Amino acid sequence: MADRDQHLIDMHRRKMADLGRRAVEAVRQLGDDDVNWRPNEDSNSIANIVLHMAGNMDQRYLAGIAGMTVHRDRDAEFNSRRMYSRDEVAAELDRAFGEVDRILTGLAPADLDRPQQLHTGPATVLDALFLVATHISEHVGQILYIAKLRLGAGYRVLSTPHKKA
Length: 165
Prior knowledge:
The chain is mainly α.
């Protein structure tokens, strides 16, 4: 059981590292205007998405798992209209995913059953890991899609490219 639990932690750690790598590499392909672009005022820019991802990861890993105090303003993550540079956005991704890796490195198999309080109610650390992995995956997908929209044929694929007809 402990081996399986350690495997789950290691698998989650690899998945989060891959998501972080792909998000940063997509952002690095873009310019400053691209990371702040939004199709309309009701949509989020990559910068907003990254602020939200970082806030979510801080809340789940730093506060929820590591027990640190985190002050988060979720609405501000979406409402910010500040212009961010590509380098600032990439640095925030590096910071947040680096903290995730640091927390996961210290996570023991027995910690997976530890109780957590999520917005959906009582849960375990394992529940939180699955929740955050799916949540962050959705947002990385948005970043990749926006990058493809902005760059067109100039976008460098970050996973296995498909053969073009």
